Amino acid sequence: MSEKTNKEDKKKAYRLALSVIVALILVPAVIALGVAVWDDRKFYIVSLIIIIMSMVPFALRFESRKLRARELVVLAAMIAIGVAARAAFYMTPQFKPAVAVAIITGIAFGCESGFIAGAMIAFVSNFIFGQGSWTPWQMEAMGILGFLGGILFHKRDGSLPKLLPLCVFGGLGTLIIYGLIVDTSTVITTQSVITWEKLTAAYVSGFGPNIVHAAATVIFLLILAKPLLGKLNRVRVKYGLLE
Amino acid sequence: MQKDSFYTVNPAVNICFFAAVMLITTFVLHPVIVGVSLAAACAYTLMLKGRKAFVYMLAFVVPVVLAVSVINPLFNHEGVTVLFYLWNGNAMTYEAVIYGCVSACMFAALIMWFFCLNCVMTSDKYVYLFGRIIPTLSLVFSMVLRFVPGIISRIREVSQARRSISPDFGKNPIKGIRHGLSTVSVTVTWALEKAVNVSDSMKSRGYGLGRRTSFSVFSFDKRDCALSAIMLVCFAACVAALASKTISFRFYPSIKQTFAGWAAYGGCAAFAVLCALPVLLNIKENIAWRILKSRI
Predict the structure, then answer these.
(1) With an 8 Å Cβ cutoff, are A241 and B196 in contact?
(2) Whole-number percent of chain A with pLDDT over 90
(3) Which of A80, A99, A135, B86 has its CB surrounded by the most CB atoms within 10 Å?
(4) Window from A34-48, A126-140, B229-243 with minimum mean pLDDT
(5) How many CB atoms lie within 10 A of CB A228?
(6) What is the pLDDT of residues B241-254, one digit of tens each?
(7) For range B176-184, the mean pLDDT
(8) Which of A66, A82, A98 is the endpoint of a domain?
(9) Cα A187 from Cα A195, distance rounded (Å)
(10) In A, which residues are within 8 Å of B193 by CB distance?
(11) Which of A232-236, B41-45, B244-248 has the highest mean pLDDT?
(12) Domain containing residue A19
């Protein structure tokens, strides 16, 4: 037993070291390299590398966690529900329930699975909507929202969160976090010289769609949060899941 | 999709091709490089989807290109050659206009390449590629791919069943919304229960006991070797030419371009071959097929 916990501790320390290396050494190194070597497109390549690197710890952690089959498949089902929900609203641009589903998954499964669910919903649904240079940014943005949903509202006993703070978080999170990340990515992808004027122009022109997106998230959280979490709780009680 | 030979090569070759081409296209803002990439992307899109889809594509890409090329000179006033002054006193410079056009073409090429990538890299290829590196995530990914059509067809089934037992279906919009909501609710419950069923089935088949193996129909044959070798040589030649600074384009403050010497021409030719690889492969296979047919 002690040997096992020892091994676990070693693994944890290893992962922590990896995260520290990524955060403190690799990211600044990439930024420095970008400033020194790439003239034209440094914003694009640096931001892309940082975004991909920020997903690596989550992926590694998910791989090493040795989830039970049940948790894995129910998580996959939640991601599939998110993808199907986004696909069902293909006719209404920006008015999509995917972020709400990512946040709810984070609440039910915890922050790490929330990140994986958000990123995966963005990735898989882009097989329907089209992959593009925006895919990594969307994955990151939705992953962060799922992650924050888990951090703020995940309860071990599975009790439901209060709706008001949840909706405030969902609306503001979609408007600010998702909106900022995706609008910044538009500027970074299409322009090489980044100025505040360009960024402001992108944020201003993106404000309308972002408001619609945020409203959609709030509405879908209102409609979906209780029933979906209730259903997950039911499955948990019925089959002894996630304990 | 029409018959495409590049679709049938090993997924690793597919992804390396797209990564190499997009990398160079995105990071080398030189009109010649961008032009070559855009031309090859257009040719491959035409080959993949035919003329009609290509025209639709242009209807989407051309406005984006125009918008991007206009935005740069409006917001960027660097450069020494002033064309005219805007209403707010800012200068519209020749350099900024050229820069906008080149970066817009780069963006157009990127969109086209992503369009080709969407056609060629189907989801099964991602599962094959990532299955060894990140097995658990790939498993989740492949399960999601399986669940999504299942959920959609289940929604159809449930809604049909509900329609046939309720006589007033479709008459009252409020009742219609309630029907829709309970259809979704039923399907979600079903999906979660099904997930538990699937996991029980997985467990009884020994999931988690050892390393998972996965079936794939892809093999790495001689053609893949040859293609990888060509890609590697072309990519290396191109990067070497870029590193030697014989291909460069400076926009600000005044345009100064370098494109001279055998290194520049060689690098550019290598990049052209790299970009045109799928098109060339298709042409080669077409010729081979014609010759085979003529022998019958």
Answers:
(1) yes
(2) 32
(3) A99
(4) A34-48
(5) 24
(6) 888 877 777 777 77
(7) 84
(8) A66
(9) 9
(10) 235
(11) B41-45
(12) 1-66
Contact present, B152 and A87 (Cβ < 8 Å) = yes
Q: Which tens digits make up the pLDDT trace of A59-96?
A: 888 888 777 888 889 999 999 999 998 888 888 888 88
**B288, containing H or E segment:** helix B277-295
Q: Among partner residues A76, A87, A239, which is closest to B143 by beta-carbon distance?
A: A76
- Average pLDDT over chain A, rounded to whole? 83
The reply to whether A59 and A100 lie within a common domain is no
Give the Cα separation of B41 and B22 in Å (integer): 10
Q: How far is A83 from chain B (nearest CA, A)?
A: 7
Q: Does residue A242 sit at the B interface (CB-CB below 8 Å)?
A: no
In 3D space, the residue among A235, A114, A234, A64 whose CA is nearest the CA of residue B200 turns out to be: A235
* Number of domains composing chain A: 2
**Alpha-carbon span A19 to B262, nearest angstrom:** 46
CB contact under 8 A, B202 and A131: no
- pLDDT mean over A100-127: 91
For chain B, domain boundaries: 6-124+217-295, 127-204
Better-scored residue on pLDDT, B152 or A91: B152
Please name the residue of chain A whose CA is at the shortest distance from the CA of residue B112: A132
For residue B23, which of B121, B123, B106, B125 has the smallest C-alpha distance?
B106
pLDDT of residue A16: 66
> Which pLDDT band, with edges at 50, 70 and 90, does A189 fall under?
confident
Q: What tokens were used for B225?
A: 């070797």
Q: Does B111 touch chain A (CB under 8 A)?
A: yes
Do A167 and A190 fall within a single domain? yes
The verdict on A88 and A61 lying in the same domain is: no
The 8 Å CB, 24+ separation contacts for B181-189 are B181/A223, B183/B155, B183/B158, B183/B159, B184/B155, B185/A227, B185/A231, B186/B158, B187/B151, B187/B154, B187/B155, B187/B158, B188/A81, B188/A227, B188/A228, B188/A231, B189/A231, B189/A234
Whether residue A190 and residue B185 make contact (CB cut-off 8 A), yes or no, is no
CB-nearest partner of B195 from A76, A87, A190: A76
CB–CB contact A45 B27 (8 Å) = yes
Mutation test of the interface with chain A: which of B98, B140, B194, B203, choosing the one with the most A Cβ atoms within 10 A? B140
Q: What average pLDDT does range B45-56 have in this prediction?
A: 90
Angle ∠(B23,B115,A54) on CA atoms, nearest 5 = 50
| Amino acid symbol at B81 | T
Q: Which residue on chain B is closest to A58 by alpha carbon?
A: B137
Residue A116 shares a structural domain with residue A220:
yes
- Chain B interface test: which of A40, A126, A188, A205 (most B C-beta within 10 Å): A40
What's the ipTM? 0.84
What's the CA gap between B108 and B88, in Å, rounded? 30
